[in-house]
From TrEMBL:
Transmembrane parts of this sequence: 76-93, 122-140, 146-173, 185-208, 244-262, 269-285, 291-309, 318-337
Domain Glycosyltransferase RgtA/B/C/D-like residue range list: 53-188
Entry protein name: Glycosyltransferase RgtA/B/C/D-like domain-containing protein
Pfam families per record: PMT_2
InterPro entries named among the record's database cross-references: RgtA/B/C-like
The keyword S-adenosyl-L-methionine appears for this protein: no
Top-rank taxon: Bacteria
Keyword Membrane: yes
Organism: Candidatus Blackburnbacteria bacterium RIFCSPHIGHO2_01_FULL_43_15b
Keyword annotations of the record: Membrane, Transmembrane, Transmembrane helix
Length: 464
């Protein structure tokens, strides 16, 4: 490993961090509320709807326990994950391309696109990028135990990442199919299978202890796979014109250099890259956004970094590269710089904190309160707790058969003293206007208006 390569990588990481610290950060409410509730005694799959495996929430819960529920804690953890993803892109491109330069070119492509394609945040799709890339890296180095461990870590962070694990397992069996059931293949497969066992056995034991096995099965596997796509707003795969333009730039740039290097793509390493890129595209479903597309973007950077170095320079290729750079600046980078540079964090701005302070003042500190029509970070900002059990305000949670009835039955002897109700506006999206009918009827009958905090936001008190 050359010193020059390390210095260039450090410079790229510094530039990446500069972009991240100056662009608007998206502080998704769940990145605060899930660990906050976990630290306040809520069991993830019994006292609350937690529709993901536990790794990311548990990690954040420990972080917040030590450093507090501060925006900078989430920001810096997110940026560390993203910067580590850049290092993983560099490592993987070096490994596949057998070149220090390939790693640097791939990392450069990633640094100049990732922050501008909804990458300045923490979400489950962003958290799985490092373990998936490391899983492939160790697979290419023939370390199947480490590979299985990292792919399993990704799957226990977001369940759709299990598709990467399944795809690689199928590839291993297919590649060595002539040795099926013989010792060399069996030993390799067992090494790869140890990863899920290392994570899965403690998780199953913990879920059994908490009586949450059924809840985990329903909310992490069954309902997402079989039920939620039936509800309006859950599946959102239609693309805006801007998204189509971005995908066209990424696709055509890769296709052009791939056609020029078709023979290289027959190598097994490129087949694996292509296979996992395809899986990453499938895993974007049911909602297309570029933050769901982050693992595909990382693979794209690896492909481009390697293939660019294999492409013979010519006036035509120079024109193509110049057009790609110009299109990327105009369509991808410039619009984000214009709208997001130096702006307050989304979901954690001054207005959010002001309203949370009003809620805290109206209902009191450490109170149990139900926030109807609010995103869940307001519990954290106002230092309040919802009643158990709790679900976020999405129709695909509340409209599952029997969910509202079960929650109301558990509230009967434990309903909160206060309710803060935000009446949705007609101009809001379908998701923003949603209110669970049976819950709303119960609240209307058992609570009375007491204080208006701001337009369409009222504090209600339980009837005596």
């Amino acid at each position: 490993m050359k010193l020059k390569s390390l210095l260039l990588l450090f410079a790229l990481l510094s530039l990446h961090l500069y972009f991240l610290t100056h662009l608007k950060f998206t502080a998704w409410p769940e990145m605060f509320s899930y660990p906050y509730l976990k630290n306040h005694g809520f069991l993830l799959y019994q006292d609350m709807v937690h529709p993901y495996p536990p790794v990311l929430t548990l990690t954040l819960a420990y972080l917040y326990k030590f450093f507090g529920y501060k925006l900078f804690v989430l920001e810096w953890f997110s940026w560390i994950v993203v910067l580590f993803s850049t290092v993983c892109v560099w490592l993987l491109a070096r490994q596949v391309g057998k070149s220090e330069r390939a790693g640097i070119v791939a990392a450069t492509c990633y640094v100049f696109l990732q922050p501008f394609l909804e990458g300045n945040m923490l979400w489950f799709d962003i958290a799985i990028v490092p373990p998936v890339l490391l899983g492939l890296f160790f697979l290419l180095k023939n370390n199947l135990f480490a590979s299985g461990l990292f792919f399993a870590l990704a799957a226990f962070t977001k369940q759709t990442a299990g598709l990467f694990y399944i795809a690689v397992l199928a590839y291993l069996i297919w590649r060595d199919r002539s040795h099926l059931l013989r010792r060399p293949l069996t030993k390799r497969v067992i090494s790869f299978l140890l990863g899920p066992l290392i994570f899965g056995i403690p998780l199953l034991f913990r879920l059994w202890q908490e009586g949450a096995l059924i809840g985990f099965w329903k909310w992490v596997v069954l309902y997402p796979a079989m039920q939620w796509s039936k509800f309006p707003g859950y599946v959102q795969m239609s693309l805006s014109r801007h998204q189509v333009a971005v995908l066209a730039i990424l696709s055509f740039s890769l296709i052009i250099i791939a056609v020029k290097n078709w023979k290289i793509l027959k190598h097994p390493d490129f087949f694996l890259l292509s296979l996992l890129s395809f899986v990453g595209i499938l895993a974007v479903y049911p909602r297309f956004s570029f933050f769901h597309f982050q693992i595909v973007l990382a693979f794209w950077a690896v492909f481009v970094g390697i293939l660019l170095l294999k492409t013979k320079f010519s006036p035509t290729s120079a024109i193509v590269y110049a057009l790609f750079i110009a299109a990327s600046i105009r369509v991808i980078i410039f619009p984000v710089v214009r709208t997001d540079w130096g702006k307050e964090a989304r979901f954690y701005n001054s207005e959010d904190k002001k309203l949370a302070a009003q809620i805290k003042e109206a209902v009191g500190d450490n109170q149990t309160v139900f926030l109807q029509g609010f995103s869940s970070q307001y519990y954290v900002l106002s230092n309040t707790l919802p009643p158990k059990p709790w679900a976020d305000n999405f129709s695909w949670y509340w409209e599952i058969s029997g969910v509202q009835e079960e929650i109301l039955s558990k509230w009967s002897n434990n309903s909160p003293l206060y309710l803060v109700w935000r009446i949705p506006k007609e101009s809001e999206s379908l998701l923003g206007r949603y209110q669970p009918e049976k819950i709303v009827n119960y609240l209307s009958q058992n609570y009375t208006k007491e204080q208006e905090l701001k337009n369409v936001v009222w504090v209600w008190r339980k009837k005596q």
